[in-house]
Amino acid sequence: MIFIVVKFTIRPEYSESWLDAVSEFTASTRAEPGNLFFEWSKSLEVPHQYVLVEGFASQEAGEQHVNSPHFKAAMSWMPDYIATKPEIINAEIPNEGWGEMGELTPSSP
């Protein structure tokens, strides 16, 4: 699996509308056959920062993603929205998706 985490720091004037701005990009990416997950979160510590966690089934699926029309379209307008160059972790890992955490189980009600 290709595991990617990207931190996007958004210009303050676009921070509240960021998720709306990336909604089409997000939906298109989630519809890709090799996409396992594509999830946005907002940082609790860094103002105006969103964290994207992505998973792709294979190197080929990751390459298809970055060569897709919706990826190229997003890269064309995102520079106007970001305040800093995004930070990224991109790694190939042996997992095939999410698993359960072994150390923690909900207590009985």
Give a structural overview:
The structure is a single chain. The relative contact order is 0.29. This protein has helices spanning 18-21, 23-30, 59-66, 69-77; strands spanning 2-9, 35-42, 49-56, 87-92. With 109 residues, the chain is of the alpha+beta class. The protein is globular. It has one domain: Alpha-Beta Plaits, CATH 3.30.70. A hairpin with a 6-residue loop joins strand 2 (35-42) and strand 3.
Keywords:
single chain, 109 residues, alpha+beta, Alpha-Beta Plaits, 4-stranded antiparallel beta sheet, 4 helices, 4 strands, 28% strand
What layout of secondary structure does this protein have?
Layout: E1 2-9, H1 18-21, H2 23-30, E2 35-42, E3 49-56, H3 59-66, H4 69-77, E4 87-92
Antiparallel strand pairs: 1-3, 1-4, 2-3
Helical coverage, percent range? 25-40%
Task: Tell me the structural class.
Answer: alpha+beta
* Uncertain stretches of 5 or more adjacent residues: none
Task: Count helical runs.
Answer: 4
- Per DSSP E runs of 2 or more residues, the count of β-strands stands at 4
Per the CATH scheme, the topology name is Alpha-Beta Plaits
What is the mean pLDDT? Answer: 97
The CATH architecture can be given as 2-Layer Sandwich
The largest sheet has its strands arranged as: 2-3-1-4
Largest sheet: 4 strands, antiparallel
Radius of gyration: 15 Å
InterPro entries: ABM_dom (IPR007138), AI-2_Isomerase_LsrG (IPR050744), Dimeric_a/b-barrel (IPR011008)
Domain ABM: 2-90
GO molecular function, one term: monooxygenase activity
Keywords: Monooxygenase, Oxidoreductase
